[in-house]
Amino acid sequence: RSFARSLLRYLGFIFWGTAAAQAFGGVLVILMLKNYGYLFQESYLSLPGWLALATALILLPTGVLAVSISVKCSRNQQGTLMYLLLLLLCLEVSSATLARSYCLMTASQLESVMGYLVHQHNWTCSQDPGNSAVDVIQRKLQCCGVHNYTDWLKASSPSWHHPACVPESCCKEKHSHCRGDLGQGEQLSEEGCLKKLEGQLCFAMLYIFWFCTVLIILELLAGVSNGILMRHQPFHELRIL
């Protein structure tokens, strides 16, 4: 029983700290999908982020109750803690499952969307508009094409009157005089945008997935500890139910 009290107190402090980390993961997913909203039309993709924020809010009173129960056992507080732990388990299982499935689903969706943007891009070697969605992505991520710069060559079909080049957004930031000429390959970004986009998105989703998995284990420990304390204080009436 004394070990259960100590563990519950320790887990209560952990819940306070993990609330901030969980909120960070939720905000990360929501902002990332907002920044790349032109690539993802489905609004439900941000659901794991909102569930993570809801989890973070509930973790705060859960931590308070855990610490309070470890100091002075109260039947009402113990029952409330069990309800909150059950609610947290539901939220985190849902959030982790959605985050994992969305990471796999968006990987295939990104390739088709990026390929469409590349083929619809209207540019010439002498005049690069540089304000389309794919230009914004290439400048922000310092990448070029879907897989690499050759995607632009397939899209433009270069000939003697249309020389081989890529949009100026493929140029590295440090080369201000770059015009997308393939003859100056050292001035162009070598990595494709698909890999970088997948990396950023899956990092945010997998952050929520693994963090929720760890939290589920900690909350199960808190539930067992609380149950041990409740066992030593049997019910005298059923009003708490």
TrEMBL record:
Major site of localization recorded for this protein: membrane
Stretches that traverse the bilayer: 7-30, 50-69, 81-102, 204-229
Keywords, in A-Z order: Membrane, Transmembrane, Transmembrane helix
User: How does the record say this protein sits in the membrane?
Assistant: Multi-pass membrane protein
**Iron-sulfur among keywords:** no
Q: Which domain of life is it from?
A: Eukaryota
Q: Which GO terms describe its cellular component?
A: plasma membrane
Keyword hit for Lyase: no
Provide the protein's localization: Membrane
**Protein name according to UniProt:** TSN3 protein
Q: Which organism is it from?
A: Sterrhoptilus dennistouni
